[in-house]
Amino acid sequence: MKMVLSGNASAAYGAKLARAEVISAYPITPQTKIVEKIADLIANGEFETEFVKVESEHSAMAAAVSASLVGARTFTATSSQGLLLMHEVLHWASASRTPIVMVNINRAVAPPWSVWADQTDTIAQRDTGWMQFYCESCQEVVDTMLILYKVAEDKDVMMPAMLSEDAFLLSHTSEIVDMPEQAEVDEFLGKFEPEQRLDVENPMSFGSLSMPHQYYYEFRYKMAEAMETAREKILDAEREFEKRFGRSYGGLLDLYRCDDAEIVLIAAGSMSSTIRVAVDEMREKGKKIGLARLRVFRPFPIKELRELAKGAKMIGVLDRSFCFGYEGAFFTEVKSALYDMENRPLVKGYVVGIGGRDVTLDVIHDVINDCMVTKDTKDEPFKWIGLKGGEQ
Amino acid sequence: MSDEHEIEYKGYKDLPLSPIATGKSLVFKTGGWRTMRPVIDLEKCKKCGICWKYCPDLSILIVDEYPKVDLDYCKGCGICANECPFDAIVMVEEST
Amino acid sequence: MKTTLPEQELMEKGHMACLGCGGALAMRYLLKALGKNSMFAIPACCWAVIPGVFPYSCMDVPLQYVAFEATGAAISGMEAALKAKGKKEGVTVVGWAGDGGTLDIGIQALSGAVERGHDVKYVCYDNEAYMNTGIQRSSATPRGAWTTTTPVGKTRFWKQTNKKNIVEIMAAHDIPYTCTASVAYPEDLIKKAEKMKDIEGPCYMHIYAPCPTGWKYPPEKTIELSRLATETCIFPIYEVTYGKYKINKDIREEKKKPVLEYLKTQGRFRKLDEETVQSLQLYVDSEWNKLKRKVECFGEDK
Q1: Is the pLDDT of residue A381 over 90?
Q2: Quick check: helix, strand or coil at residue B8?
Q3: Which of residues 141-180 of C touch A (CB under 8 A)?
Q4: Which CATH number describes the domain made up of C22-298?
Q5: One domain for residues A239 and A274
Q6: Within 13 Å, how many C-alpha atoms sit on residue A273's CB side?
Q7: Is the minimum CB–CB distance between B19 and chain A shorter than 8 Å?
Q8: How do the domains of chain C map onto residue ranges?
Q9: Is the pLDDT of residue B3 over 90?
C-alpha cells in the first residue's frame, strides 16, 4: 500500500511495522513528529505498544535498555542535544548487548542553538558500539528500520543500531512510501525472544563489576567480534529483504555510477540525492564522476571502500561535521581504510552543511570542480566550502 | 538456591553475551575477614531469635531451635552480641 | 526459636558488605517481604558491589545494574516491558538505590517514574553520604556531619545544610504510598514492604541504614544506633497512605531522647560545638512537631 509520509512519520510507521513492544522517548525538534505520530497510532488503536513518556533522553535510553533486557523489542528516537545527553547510556546499551533500534534526526548541536541538518550528533557517538546507518529517503527509513531489527536481534550480533535522517530535509519532507505488508514483515522479523533476560523464573544479575585480569577485556572483544559479524548479517538481511519486498540499497556503500568513475564523492544523508543530480549533470558533459553513498558508517565499509578505490583516481569526502583539532570524521576514516593499499587514490576532505547550511547543487559542483582541479596536485588536505569571509 | 560451585571461564568464547552473573556469592568465604568471633552460651540463650534477626551476613543458623554461628561467613561485626538481651553471646579474639 | 520475621532468605552469604552494614540488613529484610517474584534495578552505590564480582551474585532474584542516575528510568522500562510481554502480573519491580542515587543524581528519574504512575516500588537505603566512593557528602548527609568533602578542618566546614526531605517530596507527588523504615524495626519494615507489594502504583520507602565505615562507630552498634535515631526523633518512622499520615513509632515527649545522645555515638559528629548541637536539637524538634501537625491535619481518621 502506498502512503505519502514524511521522514518522521516513516520512522513511526517503521516502529509500528516492526511491532516495537516498548517505546521510551522524549520530544526534541525535529523528532517530535515521530513521538506524536506514535501517540496518535496508539490512541486510535492501530499500534499496541507500551509508550513510556520519559522525562529526559538519558532516561529514554535507560528505560529502553531495561525493557530490552526484560525481552521486549524496543524503539526510541531523538536528535542533537538529546542524543548527546544519552551518550552514557548508549555505551550501556551496546555493552549490555541490547538490540535497540533508534532513529536519530541529524541536527546541529548548541551553542549556538540550531535545529537544522548537521551530522555532529551521530558522529560524536561513533565509538559507542552502535551500528550507524544514514538514510536518504523516506522509503529507505521504513525499510532500514526493519533491516536493523533483523540484524540487531540476530543472536550472533545483539548490538543496538541507530538510523539517521537529516533534520527537516528528510524528517519533514514527504515522499511516497510503499508500505511493506505487515504479514510479510512478521515473517521477516519474527518475535524477539532473547534467551538470557531479566526473568523471575531464572534469576541472574546483569552488568556486574568485572576485574582487569578477568573478564572486562574479553567482554569488549566479544562486542568487537559482533560488529564484524554484523557486516555479513547486514548483507544477508538486505538480500532477504530484496527477495521479500523487492527493494535494495546497495549494502554498506551505495554506489552510483562508480564503475568507471575517475572522481568519486563520498557522502551520507540527504545531500546524496543532490550529488546524484550533479553526477548526472557531469556525466552529460562527459566527466566520469560517481557517488559512493556512505549508507553504513558502523561497521565501517572497509572492504567496499578498497574495492571502490581500485578504480578511482580521486575521492572527495564530504563531512557534515568536524572533529576539532583534526578534520572531518568520514575523511579520516576513508583515508585510514585505504592506508594499506599499494596504489591509493588521492583523497580530499570537504566540510559542508554545518549548522544546516544548505548543501545545494552549486555547493556540490564547487566540490566537484575542486576535485578536478586538485586531482593532480594536492594543495590542502581539506577545505570548508562556502565559508563567509573565507577565500572562496 | 544455595550453590558454592565455582564458575571457571576460559576466555571470550565461553563467556556469556555480557556480564551476566549466574554464580552465587557463597564461593566467597567471608569468615576470613574476622578478627573477633561470637561465642554463644546455649545455657543463657532463650531462643528469642534476635541474633538471627539482626545478622547482616545471614550467619546465624537455626539448628535444633538454637542459634549457631556460621563460621565460614561470619565477619565478626558483633551486632548479635550487642543485641542479645540475655548476654548469651560474647565476642572473643579470633586467634583464641 | 522464635522468629518474628518470615524465615525465607533470598540473599546469599558471602557478600562484600562491610562489618555491621545497615544496607545489607535492609536488603535482607526487603527480600523477605517481597519474595522471589521481584525484579531489581540497582545503580552505582554500595549495593553495586556488595553482591560480588562477576560471575557471582548474592541475590536470588533477577537484577540489572544500571547507570547512576537511571534507576527511576530503568524500573519504568522494566515495568513497561513486563506489561508488553504479559508478564507483569505478580511481579514486583523494585528500584533499590542509595541516598546519592535517589536524592541527588537520581531524583529526576525517580520523580518521572512516580509521576507517570508506573507500578514500581522504589526503596532508598540511606547511609547519608556517597559511601561507595569513599564517604563524600550527599544531600542526605545530616547537618554537622563530617564527610570527605565536608571535612571539619579549621573552619568548621562540616555539612552546612539540613538533610533534603525526600520522603515529603515523594508524598507531594501524591503517590499511593510513601514511608520510612529502619533496620532497627524489621517487623515494621517487612509489614510496609508487604503493603507496597499489594498496592498497584508507585510506592516509595526510605530506609535508615547506618554505615560504621562512614559514620565512624563500632560495627556492633548498628541496631542500637538505628533505635536511637528514632528515639531522638531524628529519623521518625511514619507512612503516608493515599495522603493520610500515620506515625508508626510514636515517641512520647517524656521518652524522647536528646539528639546529643545520638551525636555522641559517631565519630562524624565528634567536633561539633555546643551551639551547633543546640541548633540541631531545635531543628529536630521543629521537624518532629511539623510531622505531628501533619498527622493532626491529615491523619487516617481525618
Answers
A1: no
A2: coil
A3: none
A4: 3.40.50.970
A5: no
A6: 12
A7: yes
A8: 22-298
A9: no
C291 touches chain A (CB under 8 A): no
Instruction: Report the alpha-carbon angle A44-A141-A239, nearest 5.
Output: 120
CB nearest to C14's CB, from B29, B54, B78: B29
Are residues B28 and C56, on separate chains, in Cβ contact within 8 Å?
yes
In a domain, A17, yes or no: yes
CB of C132 less than 8 A from some CB of A: no
d(CA C144, CA C152): 9
Domain C-terminal end among A245, A273, A302: A245
Instruction: State whether residue C51 sits within 8 Å of chain B by CB.
Output: yes
Q: Measured between beta carbons, which residues in chain B are less than 8 angstroms from residue A196?
A: 16-17, 20
Kindly state whether residues A235 and A347 are assigned to the same domain: no
3-state secondary structure chain A: CEEEEEHHHHHHHHHHHCCCCEEECCCCCCCHHHHHHHHHHHHCCCCCCEEECCCCHHHHHHHHHHHHHHCCCEEEEEEHHHHHHHHHHHHHHHHCCCCCEEEEEEECCCCCCCCCECCHHHHCCCCCCCEEEECCCHHHHHHHHHHHHHHHCCCCCCCCEEEEEECCCCCCCEEEEECCCHHHHHHHHCCCCCCCCCCCCCCCEECCCCECCCEHHHHHHHHHHHHHHHHHHHHHHHHHHHHHHCCCCCCCEEEECCCCCCEEEEECCCHHHHHHHHHHHHHHCCCCEEEEEECEEECCCHHHHHHHHHHCCEEEEEECCCCCCCCCHHHHHHHHHHCCCCCCCEEEEEECCHHHCCCCHHHHHHHHHHHHHHCCCCCCCEEECCCCCCCC
The residue in chain B having the minimum alpha-carbon distance to the alpha carbon of residue C64 is B20
Continuous segment of H or E residues that includes residue C96: strand C92-98
Q: Is A54 on the interface with C (CB under 8 A)?
A: yes
- How confident is residue C68, by pLDDT bands cut at 50, 70 and 90? very high
Tell me which residue range forms the domain holding A314: 253-384
Say if the Cβ atoms of B21 and A222 lie within 8 Å.
no
- C281 near A CB under 8 A: no
Q: For the domain that residue A64 is a member of, what is the CATH number?
A: 3.40.50.970
**B91 touching chain C per CB within 8 A:** yes
Instruction: Tell me the per-residue pLDDT of C120-150, one tens digit each, with 9 for 90 and over.
Output: 999 999 999 999 999 999 999 999 999 999 9
Instruction: With beta carbons less than 8 A apart as the criterion, state whether C75 and A22 touch.
Output: no
Q: Is pTM beyond 0.80 here?
A: yes
Whether A241 and A346 map to the same domain: the answer is: no
Of residues C57, C91, C108, nearest to A55 (C-beta): C108
Contact between A207 and B12 using a beta-carbon 8 Å cutoff: no
Does C293 contact A at CB distance below 8 Å?
no
Annotate C94-123 with b (16+ C-beta within 10 A) or e (fewer): bbbbbbbbbbbbbbbbbbbbbebebbbbbb
- Nearest CB among B11, B17, B22 relative to A97 is that of B17
Number of domains composing chain A: 2
The verdict on a CB contact (< 8 Å) between C112 and A59 is yes
- Which tens digit of pLDDT belongs to each residue from A22-75? 999 999 999 999 999 999 999 999 999 999 999 999 999 999 999 999 999 999
- Residue B90's identity, in one-letter code, is V
Q: Which CATH number fits domain B29-93: 3.40.50.1100, 3.30.300.30, 3.30.70.20, 3.40.50.720?
A: 3.30.70.20
Is the domain of A192 the same as that of A264?
no
What residue type is C226 in one-letter code? Answer: S
ipTM above 0.90, yes or no: yes
Domain positions in chain B: 29-93
